[in-house]
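ok trying again, last paste got cut off:
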Amino acid sequence: MPPVPSKSSSGGVKGTRLLSVLGRFALPALALATLACDVRPGADQARNAAAADGSSVEARRADSASVATVVEAFKGALQSGDSLGVLAQLSDSVVVYEGGRSESKDAYRSGHLAADMSYLQAVPPEVVSESLVLRGDIALHTSEFRSVGTFRDRAIDRRGAETLVLVREDDVWRIRHIHWSSGG
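nice, full thing came through this time. structure:
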């Protein structure tokens, strides 16, 4: 969401950075809130009715499998050094959080995508835990991992976490938000 500028008393634009930052958090916050609870009147009854309907259960299984396929394709492409495969799984409006900064798809492509692939080829992560929550056209995939190995002559032994928010766009699941963090 582009920032909406406002004029300050000195004639300059104020609030642009704040609105830009807030805009970057809007989709992840909305996705997490949507996944965490559904407070619409009758939502529990609607979920129970959908669960009783075999076709709804099958549709949810199919969605879960589709989301898992996108996640696996994304991670596999990163680890094999296939940048086109990585980018194919990303929404055009993806926001990538890594190293305390956010990037667009174009910035990630021209920025540290190559470094991420190089690192993951040298030090493939071992998934410690992962989960998937699916609600309508939004999915949340989280995982924790451990990476042990050597990269650029440095011993690596660190734990990390990954959050992927996927959104169904034109009937295709795409990664809309990525957040990676790690520590020693």
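cool. The chain has one domain: 11-183. The chain is about 45% helix and 35% strand.
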